[in-house]
What does this fold into?
Amino acid sequence: MRRRTLHLLGLAAVMVAVLALRWDVFREQWSTPAPDAWIATRFVLIVPLACGLLILRDAIRRRRSAPSPDAGGETARAEGHGRSPYRVAMRRFAENGLAMGALYVIAALCLLAILAPLLASFDPTAIEDPVATRHLPPSVGHPFGTDEYGRDWLSRALYGARVSLSVAILAVIVAVTFGTIYGSVAGYFGGFVDNALMRIVDVIMAFPTFFLMLMLVGVFEANLLALVLILGLTSWTGTARFIRGEILSLKEREFIEAARAMGLPHRLIIFRHLIPNALAPVLVSAALMVGGMIGAEAGLSFLGIGIRPPTPSWGNMVSQGREAIFVAWWVALFPGLLLSITILSFNLLADGLRDALDPKTLMRKYV
Amino acid sequence: MTRYTLRRLIQAIPLLLGIATITFVVIHLAPGDPMDMFLAPRLRRQMDPEVIELLRQRFGLDQPIHVQLGKWLVNVAQGDLGESFRYRRPVTALIAERIPYTLQLAGLALLFDALIGIALGIYSAVKQYSLADRAITVGSLAIHSIPGFWLAIMLVMVFSVNLGWFPISQTRSLDYDLLSTWGKIGDRLWHLALPVFVLGVAQAAGTARYMRNRLLEVLSEEYILAARARGLRERTVILKHALRNALIPIVTIYGMSLPFLLGGAVLIENVFAWPGMGLLATEAVGARDYPVILATTMMAAVLVILGNLLADITYSIVDPRISLGDGKPA
It folds into this structure.
């Protein structure tokens, strides 16, 4: 636990130092008026914030468990396991090479996205001399080549990572939060409420999700924020369904009966006792969903209705590449490659999480 | 059997009502005036406010919302989905023109999926932990992760632009009308090859993964052990005894994968300029052609419901253990 805190502190410190030292680079974007860039620039704060939260949580845990250091029991520690099932799962996850590799790739992509202003050697939107730099093939100066306006493709890809990753992750947060609350309310109250709520889910599930997104994006002229909401609010049904299933079986258990006998309000039973116990599969589906969301956002941007140029996103970069297939193969190749790698990493991460969290697969060999 | 089909059809009605209602809600949540749904905004700006008020009354937009919803449902039930702004034609006719193209594409992709996906899944399960098995498992996950539209562009770049083996887009060659019947079919298939492959391969990757796990599960059951103990050939055990049971849930998987297939078809149709429903929907979004946007989405949902219905009925035929709810087996 303490070593992890140190690592996190180190990472947070490095990030803060980088931000402080090169604030001049970030400041310009920070005050950008375009609403499209807003979310993506705030992405910078995520790593220090996440580290801070984890450190805080660890500290609180340590303080709470300090008076009774033996709470885990002798046998568990003798086997080298932590106390909670989550720590067992974490250990199992760490042993899965493929999943850990995927995690590192994702971490690296996030860092690239955050540090884009430092790493990109060109302005992603600047069109300087299109005649001289138009459609340059990949070289040392332009590793990914340039596009028809002579913009450096690597710089655009780095900034595109910001947009693609932040849109997908935010949309998943929206979908998972909404789906979890919706599903647990349906499962917990049962009866008429359950019936009514789940019929709505049935209807939404009948729509092919991509068509639904297309319709909503088409009817509401979507900016970045609206896009996040549309992606999130069309994708929560799966989560709601299986959370409901989990809750239905959990609520018959004794500890819930005890909670009810103690007279806890519904709100507390749902949020304190039911949801935390049903969260493991949500984690898996969230990881899977990030991959799907990146694909969906890329698809919409590819059709020219998601993220619109000049804001770069991997999807609209591929779309630009389609127009250049006769003259410049690199324009379509690189953003798509990044997309595939990112989605694959999230899928592998989800696979690893599933194996780590599911007690049934404990004995099974991976692949 | 007929009773079961009929009952499932009746059960689908509330679902269809729900779909029409959600579409209605979307219209009313849309920013701006609901008049935009009937009149292209460009046209509206040039009109006298009094005329607009008259039109509003004529379209029933001054009535309470539940009356409007009722009217909308009646119209939809009668197949009246309004008129396209862009083409100045009934939306129903437009969709009827485009649906065959989408069905050709999706149907052949499903066929490709069934042939390749199931075969690879079986092979992978039978040769568990072999090199080929690992390649199939990892490869299928990788292919599942590649965005279809990008794969399509890459294939076009290699096979159409550089090698010239397949057409770049469109549905027919220039000399299509001069060809014989078989020539026409061949020409169409030649144009379908790349889009069907792209759409089918992602599906096949999922099917192969599922088929492998399912067959491995079945192979560990005791009746398989019994069959082997009786000295049956391995080929017979797998193809006759195990496969039949392993295949049953695949039918449901196909039903469930339908929304993804149609969603994927939107992007593929765009890459290949394939004039199906997906292309119609995207064109409509680009042109703010609201009636078409709503109608294509609704039709896609209806197709999914029909597909699921078909899957359920097939399921009840292939698995006699499924109770049809009327007390007797199928």
